[in-house]
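Table 4 source record.
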Amino acid sequence: MTESTMAHIKKLTEMHGAPNFEHRVRDYMKHAMTPYVDGFVDDRMGGFYGVKKSANPNAQRVMVAAHMDEIGFMITEITSQGFIKFTALGGVANDIWQGQRLKVLTQRDEEVIGVVANIPKHFRTGQEGAPKIEDLLLDIGASSDKEVHERGVSLGDPIVPHTDFIQLSEYRYATKAWDNRYGCVIAIELLEQLKDIDLDFDLYVGANVQEEVGLRGARVAANLIEPDVAFVVDCSPANDMKGRQGLSGVLGDGALLRIKDGTMLLKPAFKQFLMEVAEKHAIKYQHYISPGGTDGGAIHQSGIGVPTAVIGVCARYIHSNDAVFDIRDYEAARTWLIESVQTLDEQVITKLQYEI
């Protein structure tokens, strides 16, 4: 793994980017992509795509979609004692946040770090249950609401975990927001790898907003681009702590061939295409089924229908303050995406569109 890849992963995963507040991620990605694209298109929700144009005057459009946002919170109340109350942005469990460090992004674009209140064992009665998110309190060290406001914190500000990117072993790493800064990194590196390669189609590579709150940005991005075929790059939960549990993801077993989830079924023709590419290039992959969904759920239903596939990776403990992933899975997914895109031409795209 190159130093450049690791630098992208560290920078992007540690970055603040809750749903509807993805501007830091967008700025970073645009800067990194600029040398490799002919320009950008932007939707009105905040999503963007770098465009690599083809010499073909009747070029079809291929979309590669990540999403910039991560799970997080939004401030709903500041108490007179200087504590902060908040609500969830995206799907989060209630019982994992006490004692964790979170960081607020203020309207001054400054970060304020705090600790979620946690009742010490000494003061517990034994009657406490798992708190609701709305019952939690973030302590930024303030003694009054006035002091909180003086530090630039206000209602509606976003909050995400305060977590560093670290290496755990030779191949495994821990960080927040691998869902879905994985997709952001691979989008940048796809364009880097294709910089000197002429394609038969116009390639749109970028990222959507607000995936974690209902695939909202993907809908408008698909309307903007009107793709002929689409790839979604996203991270999914692994369920391998007790060994393989059906088709639910195992770290180190390769990229994910997502054949079914709560929002989309993979077309058989697209499945066959991906398997042939993987086998030709000796790419390690695993079949995967998820009760959740990805931006593919919105993209594949846009227009008159867009053949869409997810090239993903799995990670343990996503939608929390830390996720654990295997870098070899990322490498497999990156190779798979690069080779799949290069295999496309007008005939293949038409086949993916109209063959079941």
